Structure formats: structure tokens, C-alpha cells
Amino acid sequence: MLELVIGNKNYSSWSLRPWVLLTALGVPFRETRIPLFEPASQAALAAAAPHGKVPVLRDETGAPVAWESLAICETIAEQAPHAWPADARSRAHARSVSHEMHAGFAALRAELPLNCRARRRGVVPGAAAARDIARIQQIWAGCRDRHAAAGPWLFGAYSIADAMYAPVVFRFATYGIECPGAAGDYAAHALASGPMQAWLAGARAEREVIAQAEIGQAR
């Protein structure tokens, strides 16, 4: 059985992505959690992965198979081909928006750190973060306009694209970011889904506090 090594569920956006993908697709796996920014964290991370970070996917022997969220998701897709849309054009689109998420939106990440269990109202994003938010909403609305008839996810059926944007769904809920129209409908659907609620329950059960993610206002 595959093993997924993750960080804190409340804070680790990179861990969330492959975890929610495996869960949504029904791929069996074992979860190992390493709390971050604790005295023993560095040694545990160094033992878990070549680069000393989470997430990392390991095989039944404990050997690392893949690390970095998107690489893990692509590895999962080799076992579950339906992790990407079947149609070639839609698949290219899904890959493009997934890589855009992986490589971009730095202002959003910096100003609105993932904190699943918190509710931080009154945070006003700066100009760069506001542009990131608008672009994400544009992506969501465009995907839903094209694929609404095929199902409730970005490309109809659940895909890696949904996993890549899962942390943004939580961020928007935490900081009260309003989404109009189809983008808002998508965010509400994703947040209410079983895998996301299961992750949230795990986040709420954690007791660790990472100070830099416990912000009261945007930085």
C-alpha cells in the first residue's frame, strides 16, 4: 500500500493536494503525519524524504516514490488515469491551470496563509493578492462554464485540477473571500465535499500552532 507523508493538516497546503486526490479517487493509502516547526520536525523530515520536506509518497517498503505535490499527483494518475480528463483538449487545459497554481499566486500564498480551522474576517488583500484572487475566480468560472453539464467539478468529474486548488477553497473560506456566480458555486461544492470535510476534521483535531499562519490581518 502507498504511504503519504504529510505535515499539519491545518497548515500544509502542499500536503492537502495529494491527500485529497487520493481520498477523492478512492486510492488506498496509509497516512503518516509529521508536525512542522516542532523540535523533532527536522530530523523526521530528513528521514522521510530526500529533500527533507512534505509531502512525499512512499511505497510499501518505505522508499520514496515521488515528492512535490504535483509530481505526486502525476504519479497517482499512473494508477488512476481518470485523475485527468479523458478528452485531450480538456486534459491540456486541466494541466495548464494545475501548473499555473503550482508555480504562481505568490501574493495570495503570502498574505492569506492556509489555516483551515480559522475564520479571519476583515483581512483586506493587497493589490497583488487581489489580482491572484481575480485570476483564480476567472479560472474556476471558465472551467465551470465549459463543463457544467459533465458534473460539479472544474472539469466535470474530479481531477488533479480540483486537488491543486483545494487549498484556495479553504483560504477563501478562512478569510471570507467572496466568489460570484459559478466560481462561488464551485467553491461551496468543493468545501462541502466529503474529502475536504474529512481533512478539515483532522485539522480541527490538531493541537499544534504555527505562529506565522495565525495572522490577524494581511501582511
Estimate what percentage of residues fall within beta strands: 5-15%
Summed up, the domain count is 2
Helix content: 40-55%
Number of strands: 4
String of helices and strands: EHEHEEHHHHHHHH
Lateral arrangement of strands in the main beta sheet: 2-1-3-4
Largest sheet: 4 strands, mixed
Distance between the termini: 42 Å
CATH fold title of the largest domain: Glutathione S-transferase Yfyf (Class Pi), Chain A, domain 2
Low-confidence stretches: none
Report the CATH C-level class of the largest domain: Mainly Alpha
Overall mean pLDDT score? Answer: 95
Shape: globular
CATH architecture of the largest domain: Up-down Bundle
Return the structural class: alpha+beta
In short:
With 219 residues, this protein is an alpha+beta fold.
Q: Strands, helices and their partners?
A:
Elements (H helix, E strand, L loop, with lengths): L1 E5 L6 H13 L3 E5 L7 H8 L7 E3 L5 E4 L1 H11 L8 H16 L2 H6 L15 H21 L12 H5 L1 H10 L5 H12 L1 H12 L14
Parallel strand pairs: 1-2
Antiparallel strand pairs: 1-3, 3-4
